[in-house]
Amino acid sequence: MKINVQIPKGEQFRSFYMFFIIASMQLGVGLIGIPRIVFMEAGHDAWISILIAYLYIALLLFVMLYILRQYENADILGVQADLFGSFISKVLGTVYILYFIFYILSTLVTYIEIIMVFVLPDSNAFVLGCMLLIIAIYTVFGGLKAVVGVTFLFFMFSTWLFVLLIQPIRQMDFLNFLPVMDKEIIDILRGTIAASYTFTGFEILFFIYPFVANKEKIGKPVFLGLSYFTFVALLATNIAIGFLSPAQLERRIWAVLNLFKIQTSPIIERLDYVVIAEWMMVAMPKVILLMWCISYIAKRIYNLSRETSVYTSASILLILIPFFNEHFIIQRLIDNVSRVSYGIVYIYPFLLLPLVLLKKKTRKK
Amino acid sequence: MRTAKLIPLFILIVFLQACLETTQIEKLAIINSRGVDLIDEGGKRMIETTLIPYIFDPRAPDMTSLLTGKGRTIKQARVEAEKQSPYPLVPGKINIEFYGKEAAESGILPFLNTHVRDAPVSDIMQLAVTNQTAREILEIEQQSVELNRTKYLQDLISKEVEKGTLPRITLQFFTRLVQQVGIDPILPVIDVVNGKPTLTGAAVFQEDKYVGNISVKESFMANLLRQRLRGTPIDVGVPRENYLGEIDYKGKLTENEDSIYLSLMLHTGKGKIKIVDADSLAFKADITMKLDLLETSIPMNIKSEDTSRKFERDIEKYFVREYENLFAKLQEVNSDALGLGRKYITSRKGSKTTNKEWMEKYQDAKMEFDIDVTIVNFGAID
Questions:
Q1: Distance (Å, rounded) from C-alpha B53 to C-alpha B82?
Q2: For the whole model, what pTM was predicted?
Q3: Are A178 and B347 a contacting pair at CB < 8 A?
Q4: Under the cellular component aspect of Gene Ontology, which terms does the record hold (chain B) (predicted)?
Q5: pLDDT of residue B277
């Protein structure tokens, strides 16, 4: 396996789009649940937990970029091949594929569950999954440029959802935030860990990096993407804490949707239905980008054609979706995916860093 | 070639849509108002719901009808009521829900549970209490009201909420306050007066139990401590002997009255509760009101700024008295509708004060009211 990859000019894109890629990868169905998940651990100091998560991930992104910059134009698979040899790199690449498949699965089944609870209780998970996956398959067949384009457009088309938060913001009770630092520092850190599933997604940097045309400018959009998501997560969490009482927040599984339930307009009384439909644009870029990643890794390590890998992974997903039809099974899936992500996403780059430095030193000698 | 490959996907996505359920609005009965009562049937406590659904079917002679059903749970009672309806009853647009006296006094959280769990139910549904049974109110509404029948009760209340005389009474807000330690909710009371459903006052709760009645004015005063208000009509009485020089009219009608009654409009008003001393549970409320004078019960000539100041001081005295009465009343029924507990709890770091602990302390709480009134406008004459 080659360490550095040659990307034709036509397939490269400007670093500016990294902002949308990073932000869209982090946005998703996880955002709907984040206020409650963090609140359960950190209480009304949840915002501190989220800020800590932000700092940690900023450091992590810095390390990831540092590792990638040691090579001319490599992705994580190339770095691993350089460090551990071709075979281990293939094994690790397969781990990534499996992780991404389950990551997509957790995203899809959560979104389908929300649709079934809120809008269409009699619908079929398989049918909904099929419809969502067709969008993903179609986009991935268009190539990376189409994937990035869709990410950009979906991002733009879903930002108006902020406007619908005005009513809950006006009804916030700021006493809910007092007293500050009510919980122990350990609880706040536990809140940070609880937020990690929602924050994942930036690991795509490891795979998409070779495709960026002007790599020297990649830092800014990547960090801004992360900052944007952190801002959204903070906004959602703080509005939920101010708008809902602690007892309410502890029991609402999808607290962010509860915020939208209060907003009405003269034409549409129940805007939460619109929000759930619109949330597809928030959730799908993640699925599409991950699907692209799977096809990319499969091509790199097994030399599989895009058709084969996309259809295979989509079929696996479609077969699995109907099995995840109970709330607690879905929760267990999410828990397991986030547990794996602690290792793959949050710790692994730090383990990689000393090895990369060591390699660099020996190479110089 | 590539397009040919994608054609099956396109066909699939079009046809898959048929797999999703569809419901035709003409074939539904959409519940609009609901009443909940507790009844005794053979020694067992049962829930009785009275429903008013909309029917969109153009062949139906009437837009609304009245259905009742009994059951152990709200949903069961609805299914029971559905037996009288040719169309399925859907709860997605319940605008208002009533609780009969008995149901409200026993605690309404169990009835709300279903709404919170059932995601399609609207969070902005309004809640109200009646001193009769909910069934009576809805039956009388169906008979007596002709104008805008489907929204009559809803509008009756929501205009008061807009004016600020009632606090927010949505399902969302009620469940928020019920479960919040240190503040208790207020809901409107609608009773039948002269054969028509009428807003008669407000119900104060202790957690989810209806414990006492306050007037609409008192509900405004409680609301003022919760949020910034404007445009609320206010009536105040000031002692007559203070204004003998300014009275502009002599007549039999007003000769023997002790008070002059003023009609005012709240320009802007806000209130804030502060803790003076957490250990001795001393609280203080700072309330500022900017008012417009609209009417005096005896025509008056407000000649100078002094008169205006005199009015302001008397209005302040009036409200201090009213607030003290309200606070005493609330303490008596053990309801913290003003939200003193919230202030107390947020000032105690690391303590997990439960509602029960606060309610014991609440009895010993003392409250002072500091009211600052300014009359901004007197209309076109002085």
A1: 10
A2: 0.87
A3: yes
A4: membrane
A5: 85
